[in-house]
């Protein structure tokens, strides 16, 4: 509860705004703000004699974040996050529990990600100082990691399993369709740091080839991409072995979460295809929908789009399908070849843009070689080998070698390049590959439209990865941690942050408010509490401190009450 108190220092009276709460069963001042002398306060407050007093912000007053932190805090309470963490990571001795530290770290990741060294500073500017049983001075980087070091790999898995079970029960999540995929995140871990096995050099999906990367696999719901399982693995490990190493955990998690659910379908991408993985899926208690590498099934690409069935009546505008049964990895599967007009246009435009770029590069190279030959350029002449190497690099992108016919020869001691665009190859590419996707499934009784819609839900997990790479919220990358244990805890916090934000977004959707996580946090972040001072009704008496909310827009007001955040309003 906020109040104003006076202190007499060397005969002078000064006023302070402060908040007290019970910490460890004893009353304690958790926040204090200097206001000044009485004359300073009265001068800053416009008091009208002919009407009610008009409140003004305190001199140097306190404006605190409320909306976003209260929404996340409330969700964490519904998940029993602190109790679950403390059950798996008990702590002896004084001070806040491990669960309390993890709670603050998770809320920070959701709202305003910052370094562990700055969490205490951020905490002081939020309403959390009156909601969470911890003080900002206890949120140093050292104290934070002293507590996080207690969380080992087994505890991470147990904490996640209990949180997920709680989320499914509390929010009634739909678990009949689950999505699996993997990605990686770059780090700034030093090349010669040998205390970290997770951060390795591999194919970075952010194009940061010079940096070490860490892999992340996620199992999420098709319903608002809520994480149900995650795994942190070395960045140089490809997708298929990652899926194989997680099979037992996937089956175990599905068994726990889908009790009473008759039909569960796992959706995954073609990067997870392998004979061992498909054997594991065959033995698992769930069905699947996946995709095949098109170039490995040339005969299916030959299917003319005119012979495909149009699916416009199934709310799949511009999509056509052709169905068959085919042996895939040793099993007879239902295979659906699809053609998507929008995908065809997007792929064609992308390829033509890349073609134009290489035409320009080749034209400039040919002109430069001609200048070498005429003597307009002096110095060490290029060789056929160096020119060929440069051309090969330009044509390394997908389909470029098929679309260009290039010859590098030696003419009068200088390389000469001749090239032309292969129109026949471009026509063939449009006829067979562009716009087509090959799906396969063991849901033999599903319609083509059902199979396509199930696979399209894969975008939900891609949205989840995109949210985790947002630098303003969650912000899994860049990682500055340099040991495997710290990386795993950091990833756990980020995955929990994604779960919480997705659940809040899902709650708003139930009230008819469809918005992105960024939009949701932007509106919640503008809801703040402000401390205000009123002059005493007795004139010369102590001023009275009041706290209230900033004015809310119609959208903010709707979100505020839909989430029931009025119970966290300052009194």
Q: How is this structure best summarized?
A:
The protein is an alpha+beta fold and 571 residues long.
Structure, explained:
Among the domains are: 2-66 and 527-568, no CATH class; 288-445, no CATH class. The protein is built from 20 helices and 18 strands. It has helices spanning 38-44, 67-78, 81-88, 98-111, 119-123, 141-148, 153-171, 239-245, 247-257, 275-283, 298-301, 341-374, 384-394, 400-403, 423-432, 448-456, 459-468, 484-510, 517-525, 554-562; strands spanning 2-9, 12-23, 26-36, 56-57, 63-65, 177-186, 213-221, 227-234, 265-268, 287-292, 309-310, 319-328, 331-340, 404-411, 414-421, 436-441, 528-534, 544-549. It is globular, with a radius of gyration of 31 Å. The N and C termini lie close together (7 Å). Residues 46-60 have low confidence and may be disordered.
Layout of strands and helices, then pairs:
Elements: E1 2-9, E2 12-23, E3 26-36, H1 38-44, E4 56-57, E5 63-65, H2 67-78, H3 81-88, H4 98-111, H5 119-123, H6 141-148, H7 153-171, E6 177-186, E7 213-221, E8 227-234, H8 239-245, H9 247-257, E9 265-268, H10 275-283, E10 287-292, H11 298-301, E11 309-310, E12 319-328, E13 331-340, H12 341-374, H13 384-394, H14 400-403, E14 404-411, E15 414-421, H15 423-432, E16 436-441, H16 448-456, H17 459-468, H18 484-510, H19 517-525, E17 528-534, E18 544-549, H20 554-562
Parallel strand pairs: 6-9, 9-10
Antiparallel strand pairs: 1-2, 2-3, 4-17, 5-17, 6-7, 7-8, 10-16, 11-12, 12-13, 13-16, 14-15, 17-18
Helix pairs in contact: 2-4, 2-18, 2-19, 3-4, 3-7, 4-18, 7-18
């Amino acid at each position: 509860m906020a109040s104003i108190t006076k202190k007499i220092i060397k005969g002078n009276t000064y006023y302070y705004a402060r908040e007290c709460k019970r910490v460890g069963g004893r009353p304690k001042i958790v926040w204090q703000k200097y206001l000044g002398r009485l004359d300073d306060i009265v001068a800053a407050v416009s008091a009208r004699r002919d009407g009610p007093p008009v409140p003004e912000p305190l001199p140097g007053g306190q404006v605190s974040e409320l909306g976003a932190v209260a929404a996340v805090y409330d969700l964490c309470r519904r998940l029993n996050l602190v109790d679950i963490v403390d059950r798996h990571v008990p702590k002896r001795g004084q001070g806040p529990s491990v669960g309390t530290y993890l709670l603050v770290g998770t809320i920070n990741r959701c709202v305003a990600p910052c370094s562990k060294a700055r969490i205490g500073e951020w905490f002081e500017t939020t309403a959390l100082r009156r909601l969470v049983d911890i003080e900002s001075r206890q949120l140093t980087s050292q104290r934070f990691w002293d507590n996080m070091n207690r969380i080992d790999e087994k505890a991470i898995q147990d904490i996640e399993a209990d949180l997920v079970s709680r989320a499914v029960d509390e929010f009634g999540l739909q678990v009949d369709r689950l999505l699996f995929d993997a990605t990686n995140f770059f780090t700034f871990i030093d090349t010669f740091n040998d205390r970290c096995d997770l951060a390795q050099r591999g194919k970075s999906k952010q194009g940061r080839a010079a940096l070490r990367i860490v892999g992340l696999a996620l199992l999420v719901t098709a319903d608002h991409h809520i994480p149900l399982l995650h795994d942190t693995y070395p960045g140089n490990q490809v997708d298929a072995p990652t899926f194989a190493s997680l099979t037992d955990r996937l089956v175990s998690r599905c068994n726990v979460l889908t009790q009473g659910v008759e039909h569960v379908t796992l959706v995954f991408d073609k990067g997870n295809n392998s004979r061992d993985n498909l054997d594991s899926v065959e033995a698992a208690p769930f069905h699947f929908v996946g995709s095949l590498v098109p170039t490995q099934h040339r005969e299916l690409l030959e299917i003319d789009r005119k012979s495909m069935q149009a699916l416009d009546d199934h709310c799949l505008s511009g999509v056509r399908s052709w169905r068959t049964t085919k042996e895939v990895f040793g099993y007879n599967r239902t295979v659906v070849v699809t053609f998507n007009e929008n995908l065809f246009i997007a792929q064609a435009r992308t390829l033509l843009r890349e073609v134009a770029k290489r035409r320009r590069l080749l034209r400039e190279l040919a002109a430069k070689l001609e200048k070498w030959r005429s003597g307009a350029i002096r110095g060490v002449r290029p060789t056929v080998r160096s020119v060929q190497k440069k051309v090969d690099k330009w044509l390394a992108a997908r389909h470029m070698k098929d679309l260009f016919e290039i010859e590098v020869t030696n003419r009068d001691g200088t390389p000469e390049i001749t090239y032309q665009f292969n129109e026949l190859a471009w026509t063939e590419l449009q006829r067979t590959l562009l716009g087509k996707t090959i799906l396969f499934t063991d849901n033999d009784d599903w319609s083509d439209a059902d199979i396509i819609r199930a696979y399209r839900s894969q975008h939900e997990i891609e949205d989840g990865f995109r949210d985790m790479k947002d630098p303003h919220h969650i912000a899994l990358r860049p990682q500055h941690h340099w040991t495997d244990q710290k990386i795993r805890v950091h990833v756990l916090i980020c995955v929990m942050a994604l779960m919480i934000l997705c659940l809040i977004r899902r709650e708003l959707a139930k009230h008819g408010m469809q918005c992105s996580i960024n939009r949701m946090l932007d509106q919640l972040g503008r809801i703040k509490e402000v401390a205000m001072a009123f002059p005493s009704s007795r004139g010369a008496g102590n001023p009275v401190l009041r706290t209230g909310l900033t004015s809310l827009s119609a959208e903010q007001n709707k979100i505020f009450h839909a989430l029931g955040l009025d119970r966290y309003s300052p009194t």
